[in-house]
């Protein structure tokens, strides 16, 4: 049980000038990269991780959380202004945001997106703070056998939800675990798969793999696709009426049901590993449209459409931390990268964190709330500036990002080995993206690989290698059964229904 | 695209087999005392890849793969080669000239011809980054 002094100290730590500065910088950077289609907060977090080596844990995690939260605000900007989402989850925002721009109300749409984002994010942060401690207490009662079964279940869910198919998702999991085994074996310290390269004795550098697979592979793809250096122009009409430039309290209040629905969707879906903010945004939009008095107005510049999507996709950010902090299981690329950051700081995320590092946890909660406030303030003043940023040439953005990746990979490993690993991971990531294998799943499995091996070893000790011993672990047994159900449902039943639907559509459509 | 899917899955299956039959036996010691043999996890992973690739060959994904066009692939390869050459030059030439050259090469590759942006990418960003890393963060670069 965490005492009040720890809670107060943790929240107080956030206001240390260094921590404040880094959280603010993270939010600023997040909004900046979120506003630029193609870069996004995930790539930026991957590149930023090595730079957080020199920071204290709370500053480092607060900085990365700031990038993540700022990114979800920034992603709406190009979606609304030029119909090009800055982040995938802002695709739903463009459905009504861009029509509002065409109606001459870009600033109204941007402000509503900002207010909705903050609303959803704050709601999910409050849920996280409320449920995390009791959930962690429940998770602590789980033994190594249950943890092992939970990891298998989480892998199957993530593989099914984040991949084109369950099979490809599971292959990505296996690849991640295989590459995580490179380096010294944890029990005997015997080198594995290092091919004589003793710089790999400590394993493949975590940050280099993340930067390569997530960031550099995407940069390769974008650079290969970009043929011209320019970007579209954005123009704000100075003669625009005041009511088209701002969101009144009455307008905000009229969207309250869409906002709450979005916040609930985002929080519920964010807590499920692998479900993702894009799904939350579209589900919330569909629900808001269905519940509206005039559903035909959706898609034509209805402010409630913007409210529903932005509230949902931002609410995912806070809820994403629930499985991460309570179970140590990331459910998305950003939370997987946060695990990497924790590991680099020498901290093992999971339920024990609440007992061993309670002050840091409450500092993190404080950082999340503060990041929301900063997101609001910086967003209000920065909207017009970010609108200009999206006109920066793509060539400059990607060239800069590539150099940052080289620097980050070099710093992460302390030498050229980091860059070499980054290049290898980039090739692998590019191949995976091109062939429909989920890179995020690979990264999650790679980060969790050592923990998976440890929990397997502990399970073997406790069960003496006898599968019948699982009868004494009903929770683990239930999780294994659920895993099989998930694989059957997502791997066999859902594709079969999709094929039947496709066949029905082919026979019923006119030739 | 179905052909590409099948060929790459076959390649994956063969790679998994190569890891299981060649890489692991030669690169991982076989220690039979203790809880887990060092080969256990790599073998499980390699076997999983082989099995799942076989399943995928027999039951391909409902959604066909959306592979890049040959032109896109060639361009991506060209980018990779450019970056690799830069990486090879890094320890010999140093960070500043290599990063400036790489930035310029990527900008030109993407069709950027406007002088102010090219100057920014060559003369401002690499030195700026160098200053941040070496002076602010007190870390060294090649």
TrEMBL record, chain A:
It comes from the Bacteria. The chain crosses the membrane at residues 122-140, 147-180, 200-220, 263-286, 321-347, 359-383, 395-423, 435-452, 472-491. The keyword Membrane applies. Residues 20-443 form the DUF112 domain. It holds the Pfam family TctA. Keywords: Membrane, Transmembrane, Transmembrane helix. PANTHER family: TRICARBOXYLIC TRANSPORT PROTEIN. This is Tricarboxylate transporter family protein.
From TrEMBL, chain B:
The keyword Transmembrane helix applies. Residues 10-142 form the DUF1468 domain. Keywords: Membrane, Transmembrane, Transmembrane helix. The chain crosses the membrane at residues 39-60, 72-89, 118-137. InterPro entries: DUF1468 (IPR009936). The keyword Transferase does not apply. This is DUF1468 domain-containing protein. It comes from Rhodosalinus halophilus.
């Amino acid at each position: 049980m965490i005492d009040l002094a720890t809670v107060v100290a943790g929240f107080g730590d956030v206001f240390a000038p260094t921590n404040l500065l880094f959280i603010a910088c993270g939010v600023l950077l997040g909004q900046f990269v979120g506003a630029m289609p193609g870069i996004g907060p995930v790539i930026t977090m991957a590149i930023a991780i090595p730079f957080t080596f020199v920071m204290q844990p709370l500053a480092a995690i607060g900085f990365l959380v700031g990038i993540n939260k700022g990114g979800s605000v920034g992603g709406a900007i190009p979606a609304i202004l030029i119909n090009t989402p800055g982040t995938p989850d802002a695709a739903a925002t463009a459905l009504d945001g861009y029509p509002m721009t065409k109606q001459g109300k870009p600033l109204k749409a941007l402000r509503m997106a900002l207010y909705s984002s903050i609303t959803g994010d704050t709601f999910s942060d409050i849920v996280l703070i409320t449920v995390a401690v009791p959930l962690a207490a429940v998770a602590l009662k789980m033994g190594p056998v249950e943890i092992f079964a939970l990891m298998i279940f989480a892998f199957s869910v993530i593989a099914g939800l984040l991949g084109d198919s369950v099979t490809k998702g599971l292959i990505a999991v296996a690849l991640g675990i295989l590459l995580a085994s490179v380096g010294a074996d944890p029990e005997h310290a015997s080198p594995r798969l290092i091919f004589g390269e003793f710089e790999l004795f400590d394993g493949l550098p975590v940050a280099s793999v993340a930067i390569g697979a997530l960031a550099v592979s995407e940069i390769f793809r974008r650079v290969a696709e970009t043929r011209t250096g320019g970007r579209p122009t954005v123009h704000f009409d100075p003669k625009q009426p005041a009511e088209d430039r701002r969101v009144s309290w009455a307008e905000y209040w009229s969207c309250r049901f869409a906002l709450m629905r979005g916040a609930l969707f985002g929080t519920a879906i964010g807590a499920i590993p692998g479900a993702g903010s894009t799904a939350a945004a579209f589900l919330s939009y569909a629900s808001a449209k269905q519940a509206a008095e005039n559903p035909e107005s959706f898609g034509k510049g209805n402010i409630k459409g913007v409210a529903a999507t932005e509230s949902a996709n931002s609410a995912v950010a806070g809820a994403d931390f629930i499985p991460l902090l309570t179970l140590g299981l990331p459910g998305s690329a950003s939370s997987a990268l946060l695990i990497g950051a924790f590991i680099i700081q020498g901290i093992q995320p999971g339920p024990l964190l609440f007992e061993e590092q309670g002050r840091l946890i409450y500092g993190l909660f404080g950082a999340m709330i503060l990041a929301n406030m900063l997101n609001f303030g910086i967003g209000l003043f920065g909207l017009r500036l970010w609108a200009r940023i999206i006109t920066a040439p793509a060539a400059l953005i990607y060239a800069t990002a590539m150099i940052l990746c080289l620097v980050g990979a070099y710093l992460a490993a302390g030498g050229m080995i980091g860059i070499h690993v980054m290049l290898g991971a980039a090739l692998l990531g590019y191949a995976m993206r091109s062939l429909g294998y989920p890179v995020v799943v690979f990264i999650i499995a790679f980060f969790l690989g050592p923990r998976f091996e440890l929990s397997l070893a502990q399970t073997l000790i406790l069960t003496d290698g006898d599968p019948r011993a699982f009868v004494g672990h009903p929770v683990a047994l239930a999780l294994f059964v659920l895993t099989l159900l998930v694989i059957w449902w997502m791997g066999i039943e859902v594709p079969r229904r999709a094929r039947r639907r496709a066949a029905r559509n082919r026979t019923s459509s006119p030739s | 695209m179905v052909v590409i899917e099948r060929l790459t899955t076959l390649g994956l299956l063969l790679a998994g087999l190569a890891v299981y039959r060649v890489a692991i036996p030669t690169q991982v010691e076989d220690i039979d005392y203790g809880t887990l043999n060092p080969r256990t996890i790599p073998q499980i992973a390699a076997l999983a890849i082989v099995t799942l690739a076989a399943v995928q060959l027999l039951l391909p994904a409902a959604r066909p793969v959306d592979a890049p066009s040959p032109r896109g692939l060639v361009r991506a390869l060209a980018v990779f080669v450019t970056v690799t050459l830069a990486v090879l030059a890094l320890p010999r030439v140093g960070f500043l000239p290599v990063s400036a050259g790489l930035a310029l090469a990527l900008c030109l590759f993407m069709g950027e011809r406007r002088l102010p942006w090219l100057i920014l990418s060559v003369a401002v960003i690499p030195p700026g980054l160098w200053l941040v890393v070496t002076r602010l963060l007190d870390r060294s670069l090649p």
